[in-house]
From TrEMBL:
<keyword id="KW-0378">Hydrolase</keyword>
<comment type="function">
    <text>Guanine nucleotide-binding protein that plays a crucial role in the cellular response to amino acid availability through regulation of the mTORC1 signaling cascade.</text>
</comment>
<dbReference type="GO" id="GO:0060090">
    <property type="term" value="F:molecular adaptor activity"/>
</dbReference>
<keyword id="KW-0547">Nucleotide-binding</keyword>
<comment type="similarity">
    <text>Belongs to the GTR/RAG GTP-binding protein family.</text>
</comment>
<keyword id="KW-0963">Cytoplasm</keyword>
<dbReference type="GO" id="GO:0010507">
    <property type="term" value="P:negative regulation of autophagy"/>
</dbReference>
<dbReference type="GO" id="GO:1990131">
    <property type="term" value="C:Gtr1-Gtr2 GTPase complex"/>
</dbReference>
<dbReference type="GO" id="GO:0071230">
    <property type="term" value="P:cellular response to amino acid stimulus"/>
</dbReference>
<dbReference type="GO" id="GO:0005654">
    <property type="term" value="C:nucleoplasm"/>
</dbReference>
<keyword id="KW-0472">Membrane</keyword>
<dbReference type="GO" id="GO:0005525">
    <property type="term" value="F:GTP binding"/>
</dbReference>
<dbReference type="GO" id="GO:0003924">
    <property type="term" value="F:GTPase activity"/>
</dbReference>
<keyword id="KW-0539">Nucleus</keyword>
<dbReference type="GO" id="GO:0005829">
    <property type="term" value="C:cytosol"/>
</dbReference>
<dbReference type="GO" id="GO:0034198">
    <property type="term" value="P:cellular response to amino acid starvation"/>
</dbReference>
<dbReference type="GO" id="GO:0005765">
    <property type="term" value="C:lysosomal membrane"/>
</dbReference>
């Protein structure tokens, strides 16, 4: 059985005004489009764009708000959708006047909360590449304040909004997405624990568990995340997939499979090590050259780690299946 059937995937909705950057985010994060190409993305008039991200650990959908769409439209079953959603990301264009976006955010959040108070509300203040550092902080403060004031006026101050500054022109969009996804993974503490044990027993500096398609890291060990390390790991995934697409055996299917393994030696005595863990996930680590001399140990520990990860996800599927079964009785 596939331990990542859709029922256990974190479900994410991406919403926001038209032109706020939703399609660009989707293309850059999930389809490897380069940020400059998004300039030529065509605007669509569809309200809902389903992304069949079968190849990713994350299940995700985009919603637009072109003018007239409202929550009182009976043909639009938003209740059902909110009920199955883990996180609602609302994208606000920081380079534009954001008053309209703020009122849409308020309407969306309050409607969703009524249906499903467990949704995580995540606000992406987007396109911040166009703002100076001071302006970024000021915009974030202003948006946060206004959004919270609106909630307080409605007597809903208990709703928590998480705010992120994002841009598709750097890694901030991947970092923000990683945090959003991590909150939806109930096994996160176990995964972190396994990563901690793995790195300390293998002399590894840093390890990430990556969703290969999106380059979102779904867990890392408890040492602090340094942006440069994270970016290097992202680049490594790109290199591995690209090489495998170009030189992989024809007809071999996907560029990522059980055999996927790569080692890159950097000239500063560090080794990057990538290995397949599950159909969607890969481990990417930073290892000092001297620790990597004991590669047998790293390989052996990895083998144990991989088995443990697979069990973690497997158990959850079994529990869900039996719950579903109970519901049917
Ligand atoms: P959507 O209607 O919400 O799906 O918006 P699009 O994805 O079509 O984006 C609208 C425009 O915003 C496009 O021209 C993108 O190139 C641009 N855009 C998206 N993300 C960013 C960003 O992070 N920074 C900048 N400067 N422009 C962006």
């Amino acid at each position: 059985t596939d331990p990542f059937s859709t029922e256990v995937k974190p479900r994410i909705l991406l919403m926001g005004l038209r032109r706020s950057g939703k399609s660009s985010i989707q293309k850059v994060v999930f389809h490897k489009m380069s940020p400059n190409e998004t300039l030529f993305l065509e605007s669509t008039n569809k309200i809902c764009r389903e992304d069949v991200s079968n190849s990713s650990f994350v299940n995700f959908q985009i919603w637009d708000f072109p003018g007239q769409i409202d929550f009182f439209d009976p043909t639009f079953d938003y209740e059902m959708i909110f009920r199955g959603t883990g996180a609602l990301i609302f994208v606000i264009d920081s380079q534009d006047d954001y008053m309209e976006a703020l009122s849409r955010l308020h309407l969306t959040v309050t409607s969703a909360y009524k249906v499903n108070p467990d949704i995580n509300f995540e606000v992406f203040i987007h396109k911040v590449d166009g703002l100076s550092d001071d302006h970024k902080i000021e915009t974030q403060r202003d948006i946060h304040q206004r959004a919270n004031d609106n909630l307080a006026d409605a007597g809903l101050e208990k709703i928590h909004l998480s705010i992120y500054l994002t841009s598709i022109y750097d890694h901030s969009i991947f970092e923000a997405f990683s945090k959003v996804v991590q909150k939806l993974i109930p096994q996160l503490p176990t995964l972190e624990n396994l990563l901690n044990i793995f790195i300390s027993n293998s002399g590894i500096e840093k390890a990430f568990l990556f969703d290969v398609v999106s380059k979102i890291y779904i867990a890392t060990d408890s040492t602090p995340v340094d942006m440069q390390t994270y970016e290097l790991c992202c680049d490594m995934i790109d290199v591995v997939i690209d090489i495998s697409c170009i030189y992989g055996l024809e007809g071999a299917g996907t560029p990522y499979d059980k055999e996927s393994l790569a080692i890159i030696r950097l000239n500063n005595t560090t080794v990057l090590y990538l290995k397949e863990v599950t159909k969607f996930l890969a481990l990417v680590c930073f290892v000092r050259e001297e620790s990597f001399e004991r590669k047998g140990l790293v390989d052996y520990n990895f083998h144990c780690f991989r088995k443990a990860i697979q069990e973690v996800f497997d158990v959850r599927v079994k529990v869900l299946r039996s719950r579903k079964h109970l519901n049917q009785i």
